[in-house]
Write a structure and sequence with these properties.
The protein has 167 residues and is α+β, with helices and mostly antiparallel strands. The protein has helices at 10-22, 30-41, 46-56, 60-69, 89-93, 96-107, 150-166, and strands spanning 81-86, 120-125, 138-140, 143-145. Bound molecules: FE2/S2 (inorganic) cluster. FE2/S2 (inorganic) cluster binds next to helix 5.
Amino acid sequence: MSTQAFEFTPENLQEFRDILSRYPERRAALLPTLHLAQEQNGHISTEVEAYVAQIMELPIVDVREVVTFYSLYFRRPMGHHHIRVCMSIACMLGDCEGIRNHLRTRLGVAPGGVTADGKFSWEAIPDCLGACELAPMMQLDGEYYGNLTPEKVDEILDTADHADKRG
Ligand code: FES
């Protein structure tokens, strides 16, 4: 009987096996496996790292190195919805500063924070998010939203909020 605080659900264990089968080398499956673990747990805790290291047959230090390198992995609990706003050059020219200021006001927390109700967290990312043609842009739960204005940001957040309320 395992004493670990985290383990994949039976469905995710099957998904993990499917992921493994898609890669010629086990190690190459680490990123999608971490992604799956984060989807289940909300963030990559120490327990999740230990579990992933075990099922990937890797030293835990290798797993931690990847988790700390990629900003897509969260090391602490985040909001139910997570926003990443791009602050790189093309988005800068499109006034991402205005978008960042609007998010700060609307959400009431600084970048890196989580709203008091736990619904939203957000980050201002200095590196290009790879969708310059959409500048200024942000990601919400991994989806891309572009040509942002403060009004459009409000619409996107309201839609996410209403979808939650409808369950
Ligand atoms: S600079 Fe923002 S997506 Fe490239």
